[in-house]
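Limitations

Structures in this collection are predictions, not experimental determinations, and the ligand pose is part of the prediction. Treat each record accordingly. The example that follows, with 3-acetylpyridine adenine dinucleotide as the small molecule, is included so readers can see exactly what is and is not provided: the inputs are given verbatim, and the output is the predicted complex.
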Amino acid sequence: MNHPRPHPTRPDFDAVIVGAGFAGLYMLHRLREAGFTARVFEAGDGVGGTWYWNRYPGARCDIESVDYSYSFSPELEQAWEWSERYPRQPEILAYLNHVADRFDLRRDIALNTRVTAAHFDQGAGLWRVENDRGGRCTAQYCVMATGCLSVPKAPDLPGIERFAGATYLTAAWPRDGVDFTGQRVGVIGTGSTAIQVIPQVARQAEHLTVFQRTANFSVPARNGPLEAAEQQRVKADYPHRRALSRQSLFGIPVALPDTPRRTRDIPPAELNQTLETLWAQGGAMSLLAAAPDVLVDPEANARVAEFVRGKIRATVSDPRAAELLCPTSHPLGTKRLCLDTDYYETFNRDNVTLVDLRATPVETLTEHGLRTRDAEHRLDALILATGFDAMTGALLAMDIRGRDGRSLREAWADGPHTYLGLASAGFPNLFLITGPQSPSVFTNMVMSIEQHVDWIADCLIYLRARGIRSIEASAPAQAQWEAHVAAVADATLMPQADSWYVGANVPGKPRVFMAYLGGLGPYRQRCDQVAAQGYAGFALTPAAVAV
Ligand code: N01
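Predicted complex:
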């Protein structure tokens, strides 16, 4: 119900932004450029988000550096020099620090400050935000730039407290690094993170034991130095390259085919040749972009999956290890397709052992190592590459309360509910950057972040120009969007896998497919259309009326 609000309360800031990764930094820049006041709160003691926390050996982005970078500033694009085809974590972190300095962002960022609560004050029409340092402030808008993979999954290994050796979580790696020389090291997990860690640690440790529960598909990165001439060529072509990426499926410069050819219709020899070429070039996204129907058509998927399994068998010399490393539990691409440098080759080393946790499950950690059903593996150190409470973890970690004091945890008890992945009904003036049910993790995140930030900034400018105090997703528009997201996902093979995309990795999490699979380009058009129609599907409330 609306009540007249004669004395609107001035908030401390036009917007509070939570998180200072790629999303929070650009959001701050856009809002300030548009004349809004904004404050960023960041839990870390530096900017960088994902790239601040994930400092584990081998951490590297699986999108090419020239594409995994902001496109909003042509000067920045031209100025920054990338050293490798795929950027290492320290280089991305240096880039983000450069961005923070270049655009003078630091003065509006509070570091070491974790937002614990955000409550919508209906009477005053503003958000009251609290942090773990006891600070409080108010803002008209709250923008969650909290990342899709920022809350590590809690370790769920029996007896972990008994282990006397060192334990390392990849997502909270010691800043000064770790020297594993002379140590017996165990790695739990074989997802994207572990696949990067394992080859690095194997080169240093005396012995490495990899505890695998589920084998994953991985494609070679073929990383290497980015030659000056190649970088110059990309820089000269940036306007065209970015335009292509914005309209693409995955946010990389691969055009949508006019008449996509079905993979199952391609003669085996021709398909094999294409896959050999892609394999030699490296890159997971380009493999999927070349045959996007592998995510939809089981036959197409089976053909490409068998090609990858053939590569694993050809690489790993021990046939038993090779079979264990061949994924059979899920179609290719339905868990994140990993990108590696020497992952499968690492299992040919004398100092590496692969343990199949399906055949011999973990019984417990002991003081000296890890006991499976048939052996005790003595370890000096244990690396947990066990994944994240993805997509919703960071949002639900805060006590977010919207209209009528209803908490987001309550509203999302059966899974996330959003309109376009940008907003949630019942939570006025709250925006999510790359929120659940947007393309986010299925794309080059930087492209998706820029699209959301631009959309949100343009929206706030629109509201200000019209004296509108409040914007809120309408429940019917939200329900329609969710039905569309689910229908698109259900038309693919994606929901078949027990992946973090469906929350299957976190016990008790509702099983819902949490990303939009319609592609970044088509999604962008939809968002632009909503804006062009005066924010269709949102309720806009003028200033003279309380919300
Ligand atoms: O996490 P994951 P991740 N006992 O959830 C295993 C992005 N990323 O950090 O599959 C034994 O994929 C678990 O086994 P299972 C990327 O989007 C990007 O590797 O549940 N094993 C699995 O093997 C990626 O998808 C980049 O059977 C346990 C592993 O731990 C996302 O982050 C680099 C276990 C977790 O794999 C997450 O990747 C890194 C247990 N109790 C990450 N609990 C790049 O840009 C979990 N596991 C390259």
